[in-house]
Design goal:
InterPro entries: OMP_efflux. This protein is an all-alpha fold and 99 residues long. It is built from 3 helices and no strands.
């Protein structure tokens, strides 16, 4: 049962890391878009609505990324509990931040 639980968590963790990587790329893109829209706004080529929407998307992407990072932390803690309360440093050495 323990082995099956660890294997299941391994794949959940791998999937979570993939989602974090995609969210990081999305947040990075949103920051670039905000910079572009701000430049266009200052040049008079974009309106306030476009700027507001770009800022909102950036904030949504940042919130999504934070939630996904928290989820990976929860998964890491579940592994620690499965390993009979091993210390955080031991859990990290067995279960790295990224798979």
């Amino acid at each position: 049962m323990l082995v099956a639980s660890v294997v299941d968590l391994y794949f959940q963790f791998a999937h979570a890391n993939d989602r974090v990587a995609m969210a990081e790329a999305g947040e990075r893109d949103a920051r670039r878009i905000v910079a572009l829209v701000q430049a266009r706004f200052q040049a008079g080529a974009e309106g306030r609505l476009a700027l507001h929407e770009a800022l909102q998307v950036r904030e949504e992407r940042a919130a999504d990324l934070a939630a996904l990072r928290q989820a990976t932390t929860v998964l890491r803690e579940r592994v620690r509990v499965l390993l009979n309360g091993a210390s955080r440093s031991l859990a990290r050495s067995i279960w790295p931040d990224r798979i």
